[in-house]
Amino acid sequence: MIVEFLSAGLDVFLSPLALGFTFCGILVGLLVGAMPGLGPLMGIILLLPVAIGLPPVAAMGFLIAIFVGGSCGGSVSAILLRIPGTPLAAATLFDGYPLAQKGRASDAIGIAITSSAIGGLIGGVVLIFCAPILASFAANFAPPEYAMLAVLGLFAIVVISGGSIVKGLLAGCFGLLIATVGTDSFSTGLRFTFGSHNLLNGFHIVAVVVGLFAISEMAAQMLGRDLLRKPDVKVERPGLGTITMTLKHYVNLIRSSAIGTFFGAIPGAGGVISSFTSYAVAKAAAKPEEKYGDGAEGGVVATESANNATVGGTLVPTLALGIPGDASSAMLLGALLILGFIPGPAMFENSPDVVGGIFMVYLASNIFLLIAGILATPLFVYVLRIPKVYLIPSILLLCSIGTYALQASVFDLQIMLVFGLIGILFRAAHYPLAPVVIGMILGPILEDNLRRSLLISREGYWIFVDRPVSTILVVVNGLLLATMVYLTIKRARGSKQSELAKALSADE
Amino acid sequence: MTSSRLLNLAALGFLLVVIVTIFRQIETDLKEQGIASGGPYDNAATYPRIVASFMGILLLVQLVTELVRKGDTSDASEVELSDLRRAGMLIVVFAVYLMSLTTLGYHLATTPMIFAIMWICGMRQYLNMAIASLGIATVFAFFFEVFLNVVLPLGIWNIFIPW
Questions:
Q1: pLDDT in tens, A295-350
Q2: Considering only Cβ atoms within 10 Å of each terminal Cβ, which end of chain B, N or C, has fewer?
Q3: Is the pLDDT of residue A373 over 90?
């Protein structure tokens, strides 16, 4: 089965367009990852309009490569500037920056790139073996299971991603409601269109996501006072010897990649949790003379291999079940939907070439990462020197042309701006934005399957506990809901106690 | 400066408007279309009603949490008014740019927008700003028009570059 996918995928992958765009995706990913404030999600969002004009495998190659490159690129600024380009690289600071301070910046970058590539390849092996098995298991799923899976995806992201659970749920529900705008697929009635023909097909996901993330991020960048600053960074290209340095930590490499893949496959966990966990495990397992926190090579190996292995892990539920693991994979899922493919068991059965092609581009991305990462390091360092005064208008321009290019619609640009303002409000009030996107992606899956379940049911909502897998998912969702209630009460009590302590200390 | 409670209440107010709009639309527009009742096939209102109701409960919980947090009038973050003004001006310039695209077209509207953002950022070398604005606008136009075959807004004067 796996060989069939790979051979079918190889045919579509070995085209100049797919190979070229995968390579370009790695370069773009490394660039957006290296620039503080951007990252893989922003890279995918900004370049999505470019990708959807391409053949499916080339488009997915481009976006997946941005995801892979972006997950690694953050390490460059973490090592050189002590500013993680993305939250994924936050743990790389602990040892990457001290290594650079010791005059080994190029070694640290080389180790980060090699670890990311090897971690990504290990995640890719898991993806290739597990996704078809999970898809084959899910082939027996009916609407009740899919409805419960959609709820599970949303709940898991809210619980695991941290922050206020109530705010996360509110953001997720807001995403679910956004997805209801437009023509109802069952009754063909019009919902929440306010008489506008522009809303007949609902909001375009790219316009919403670009507004929520990119516009609000650019507004946030404007709050900084380093807009004209040109960071003074210099580094030499890492040598091939850094590959050998990385391979010396093979146990750490395999263990951290396994941790990364595991957390990637759990919706909501993502690269940040996996990189911090693998760093903690590596530190606990290390000998004292390795001096973690003071420039240990192992620290960089652990965090970087884990956060790139997460990409492979997160693609397992995304492709096999159509349930995204995080906001970046939600965007990949959205791209597949725009390209005309519905992720899940049906895609594995009907489009093995696309599935196999995605496997191939993922593996190739990690190989290209090693090559491009090591050869083009001076380029990324140069990008770090570009002041924000040039980057901010360029990104805003890319947002506008990209969104306009989707349907040649000025209305989409207005929607983008409105969601930009909503994004600014949500950021300011500490509402997470990822659940909005996940809700928007999962919304139609949830509603369609909920209504289909009720259509085939003779006992109303009892259908959800009639089937074993669905019942298990109902129980898991119930447990997650109970966890959310428990965590909310616990945090409320904690904050009240700290307020009391603050008040007492103020009285004293 | 804005307090964190005020921002939280503003966000809750926005979400309340969303919930009220959903229920109002169900009671008016959806009922008029005959898709607010019946079985799962015909009833397009049940799902948004469930989501909006759940959201209403959550909103109430969050509102109570906000009101119970006595005395929390701490600043949202260490943001100075001048920084906020810069971000606000960016949004205004960007909004004006988007509105003027259909009238002026891409080529006339983009360069001034980039120039204005650079000015807001604090740059004052006007020649450099003009060259950079024109350069960025042209490079993007070339990439999208030539490589991706996108026809950028031409405006009322139908301005385009025959690459």
A1: 889 999 999 999 899 999 999 999 998 888 788 888 999 999 999 998 989 999 99
A2: C
A3: no
Name the residue among A84, A431, A268 with its Cα closest to residue B10. Answer: A431
**B2: nearest CA in chain A?**
A428
Cβ–Cβ of B90/A218 closer than 8 Å? yes
Nearest to A392 among B110, B121, B153 (CB): B121
ipTM: 0.93
B68 contact residues in A (CB cutoff 8 A): 492, 496
**Cβ–Cβ pairs < 8 A, chains A and B:** 190
B113, A392: Cβ pair inside 8 Å? Answer: no
Which residues of B fall within a CB distance of 8 Å from A455? 39-41
What is the model's pTM? 0.86
Residue whose C-alpha is closest to residue A339's, from A316, A324, A358: A358
Question: What per-residue confidence (pLDDT) applies to A292?
Answer: 85
Residue B103 identity (one-letter amino acid): T
Chain A residues closer than 8 Å to B48 by CB = 177, 180, 191-192
Q: Which residues of A150-177 are buried (b: 16+ CB within 10 A; e: fewer)?
A: bbbbbbbbbbbbeebbbbbbbbbbbbbb
**Does the pLDDT of residue B79 top 90, yes or no?**
no
pLDDT of residue B1: 47
Q: Residues 208-237, chain A: which have Cβ within 8 Å of B?
A: 215, 218-220, 222-225, 227-228
Residue A28's nearest CA partner among A6, A44, A52, A7 is A44
pLDDT digit string (tens) for A42-69? 889 889 888 988 999 999 999 999 999 9
Pick among B2, B43, B58, B131 to test the A interface (most A CBs inside 10 A): B58
Per-domain residue ranges for chain B?
4-68, 81-147
Q: Which pLDDT score, from 0 to 100, does residue A247 have?
A: 92
Percent of chain B's residues with pLDDT above 70: 91
Is residue B132 predicted with pLDDT exceeding 70?
Answer: yes
Report CB contact under 8 Å: A192, B8: no
Question: Do residues A438 and A154 touch, judged by C-beta distance below 8 A?
Answer: yes
Quote the CA–CA distance of A135 and A316 in Å, as a whole number: 9
More confident residue, A189 or A381: A189
CB contacts under 8 A, A 394-413 vs B, are: 394, 396-398, 400-401, 404-405, 408, 410, 413
